[in-house]
Design brief:
Keywords: Hydrolase, Metal-binding, mRNA processing, mRNA splicing, Nucleus, RNA-binding, Signal
Organism: Brassica napus (Rape)
Subcellular location: Nucleus
Distance between the termini: 111 Å
Pfam families: Amidohydro_1, RRM_1
Helix content: 25-40%
Bound molecules: N-(aminocarbonyl)-beta-alanine, zinc ion
Oligomer: single chain
Family: Belongs to the metallo-dependent hydrolases superfamily. Hydantoinase/dihydropyrimidinase family.
Length: 648
């Protein structure tokens, strides 16, 4: 029975506690010889030497002494261990708890070539700190490295503060918002907006489960009213259009806030199209398909056997034929970036909670052990992607998005020694009889494939070899993930561009007699105080102002209203012929008032025109031109406007 193949033992002890051996350690020095080493950017024939959990060298023909374990990888691929970005181990959900905990789920992962996963912490009654502590406890028996995302299920000041603690002290750099599961995990748009803003300020990645929860609720009622209570009702109640709507909404809100977005388990063409559109427009949106969505279709939900049909219930639902193939294409062309599992297993007894009502079937399927094999077979085996692409979508991209590259996701000197050896000529068959999950069912039951992970090395130890697991409870490490991943590059600049594109606020003149009088008094006060302080004025300051860019139809009254706010005016002359239209001379009684007017009115918007208000610059003009000629010019101008600068 697969459920009893493993048991918990004391943390890191290798102690047996239920008759199944666990292993304290194996060699800390390993040489992998003669394989094709594949990274996301490059593949080469090389040896890989590992010491104390770290990759020390990657090059051809490495020579070592006797005390080193040598693995022959001739004809095989040596690749970074998989990183699953989306799992739910020991998660309390829909009235029960997932059957795989951190030990059994991770053991299964290692048998399938995945050496790290990122699980979702669910807050306790909305409390993040309590949620984090609960997951610290749940993960004590971990046997491989793991990180945490965190769900946000309510909003208040405390949550906002705790998000900062999670990011700065606990190594969480992503928060998930469920737009589905009305009445339990679902958040409304106002909470999502608050969350997006907070994520942006913390440099944390916002993630969404994108289904319209209100509409799903309506769809479920509709099915029950039609007498459809079986697993097929699950798919019918939450069609692709509801996934497309929520994906589009989340993407648009993220664009409004200008923060990156990660859409988890993209299951439909509808959602994928929204992601494609946004990415084409330059928005930072990551799309994560999951293995079940890539290779299964929904006909299983119509199976007459409830035990079979119910095991395929997950959300968003597995879709009709065609969606999966389109998602594969999107993955191969880069519209979608990485593959997860959403591993969230319930055994058949737990699934039976919804025997009479599909709404009570715990949502979730397996995949942690199968992801690497099925992705290789479906995507590389079919020729849709290369081995380097495979490494990118199963490992490297995840490490980059969550900011742990190249510690993870690469076979490079200095990287963690999380390595798999995959034999492309070896085949497998998936079955709940032989898998390592505790579940008694498997959604890939009976599936055969080519390309098998023969060796898994996690943290520098061989944990899977010859179809045998050698796992140590408590040996897995929590991996802190720093905030501000590459997805945040350029956000500040685009915010600055946005602000400078606004041409706002527009300064507007309000022509209101009473207000003018009051403000005239207050402007006069400023002038008085300038004068009282005996402020020295710059040499160009002049009682005579030359104003340009005025509306052609501006009246004297409007001019007095605008300029009169700054003090007593001796004279205003508005240009009224072809050459002078749109200009005016304004002469103040007091030079301090003239200064106030220039300071406040330059750039002022009057009827959509920005005023240019200048001091009459006698000195400047005289430098440029012959003094006499200039004086004549000015005299001519003054005459034209009928302006006098001589004191009466
Ligand atoms: N996906 C699913 O059906 N179960 C896990 C919870 C979630 O991710 O929505
Ligand atoms: Zn999930």
């Amino acid at each position: 029975d697969s459920a009893t193949q493993f048991c918990s033992a004391e943390r890191g002890s290798g102690v047996e506690s239920c008759g199944i051996p666990s292993y304290s350690s194996s060699s800390t020095r390993i040489l992998i010889k003669g394989g094709t080493v594949v990274n996301a950017h490059h593949q080469q024939l090389a040896d890989v030497y590992v010491e104390d959990g770290i990759i020390v060298a990657v090059q051809p023909n490495i020579k070592v002494g006797d005390e080193v374990t040598v693995l022959d990888a001739t004809g095989k691929f040596v690749m970074p261990g998989g990183i699953d970005p989306h799992t739910h181990l020991a998660m309390e959900f829909m009235g029960t708890e997932t059957i795989d905990d951190f030990f059994s789920g991770q053991a299964a992962a290692l048998a399938g070539g995945t050496t790290m996963h990122i699980d979702f912490v669910i807050p306790v009654n909305g409390n993040l700190v309590a949620g984090f502590e609960a997951y610290e406890n749940k993960s004590r028996n971990a046997c491989m490295d793991y990180g945490f995302h965190m769900a946000i299920t309510k909003w208040d000041e405390g949550v906002s503060k705790d998000m900062e603690i999670m990011v700065k002290e606990k190594g969480i750099n992503s928060f998930k918002f469920f737009l589905a599961y009305k009445g339990s995990l679902m958040v409304t748009d106002d909470l999502l907006l608050e969350g997006l803003k907070r994520c942006k300020s913390l440099g944390a990645l916002a993630m969404v489960h994108a289904e319209n929860g209100d509409a799903v609720f309506e769809g479920q009622k509709r099915m029950i009213e039609l007498g459809i209570t079986g697993p097929e009702g699950h798919a019918l109640s939450r069609p692709p259009v509801l996934e497309g709507e929520a994906t589009s909404r989340a993407i648009r809100l993220a664009r409004f806030v200008n923060t990156p977005l990660y859409v988890v388990h993209v299951m439909s063409v509808d959602a994928m199209d929204e992601i494609a559109k946004a990415r084409k427009a330059g928005q930072k949106v990551i799309g994560e398909p999951v293995v079940s969505g890539l290779i299964l279709d929904d006909h299983w939900l119509w199976d007459p056997d409830f035990k079979i049909a119910s095991k395929y219930v997950m959300s968003p639902p597995i879709r009709s034929v065609g969606h999966g193939k389109s998602l594969q294409e999107a993955l191969s062309t880069g519209i979608l970036q990485l593959v997860g599992t959403d591993h969230c297993t319930f055994n058949s007894t737990q699934k039976a909670l919804g025997l009479d009502d599909f709404r009570k079937i715990p949502n979730g399927v397996n995949g942690l052990e199968e992801r690497m094999h099925l992705t290789w077979d479906t995507m590389v085996g079919s020729g849709q992607i290369s081995a380097t692409d495979f490494v990118r979508i199963t490992s490297t991209e995840c490490a980059k998005i969550f900011n742990i590259y190249p510690r993870k996701g690469a076979i490079l000197p200095g990287s963690d020694a999380d390595i798999i050896i995959l034999n492309p000529n070896s085949s497998y068959e998936i079955s709940s009889k032989s898998h390592h999950s505790r579940s008694d069912t498997n959604v890939y039951e009976g599936r055969r494939g080519q390309g098998k992970v023969e060796v898994t090395i996690a943290g520098g130890r061989i944990v899977w070899e010859n179809d045998e697991l050698k796992v140590v409870p408590g040996s897995g490490k929590y991996v802190e993930m720093p905030h501000f991943s590459y997805l945040f590059d350029g956000i500040e600049k685009s915010d600055a561009n946005y602000l400078s594109s606004l041409r706002a606020p527009v300064k507007r003149v309000r022509i209101q007699k009473t207000a003018t009088r009051r403000s005239r008094r207050s402007r006069a006060m400023t002038t008085v105080s300038l004068r009282k302080q005996n402020t020295r004025l710059p040499p160009e300051v002049n009682r005579v102002l030359y104003v340009r860019n005025l509306p052609f139809n501006i009246t004297s009254e409007e001019m007095y209203d605008i300029f009169g706010k700054y003090g007593a005016i001796r004279q205003i002359r508005i240009g009224c012929n072809k050459d002078t239209k749109g200009t005016a001379f304004v002469v103040y009684e007091d030079i301090y008032d003239a200064k106030q007017a220039v300071d406040h009115l330059s750039g002022f918007n009057v009827a959509n025109r920005y005023l240019i208000v200048l001091y009459y610059q006698h000195a400047k003009m005289s430098k440029k031109f012959d003094q006499k000629k200039n004086e004549e010019e000015v005299a001519k101008l003054q005459e034209k406007y009928g302006v006098s600068t001589k004191d009466k």
